[in-house]
Amino acid sequence: LVVTKSNPDSILSEIKKLSPRLKKYEIPEKILIVKPFTFEEKLLTAKLSLVRKNILSKYQDQLSQEIGRHL
User: Fold this and answer.
1) What pTM does this model have?
2) DSSP code of 24?
3) How confident is the model over 13-68, as pLDDT tens digits?
4) Of 56, 2, 4, residue with least CA distance to 32
5) Coil, strand or helix: which one is 42?
6) Is the confidence at residue 70, as pLDDT, over 70?
7) Cα–Cα dist 42/34, whole Å
8) Backbone angles phi, psi at 9, to 5 degrees
9) Whose CB has fewer CB within 10 Å in the chain, the N or C terminal residue?
10) 3-state DSSP call for residue 56?
11) What letter does residue 35 receive in the DSSP assignment?
12) What is the DSSP letter of 46?
């Protein structure tokens, strides 16, 4: 999926259009757009695996805000 717009709502609508065979739980309800993860920011390991605890701590405020809006 290549999306030129960075609006989360337009991305979600594109996903829904392109994935009619997916089950409801397989389609994301919210999307958070962030900068690409980098090794220098300690968000990736040397093997380019995600460092989940660092990602969570970096984006905790934004994630909490989105989850709070959704509830």
Assistant:
1) 0.64
2) G
3) 888 887 788 888 888 888 888 888 999 999 999 999 999 999 999 999 988 887 77
4) 56
5) coil
6) no
7) 15
8) -65, -40
9) C
10) helix
11) P
12) T
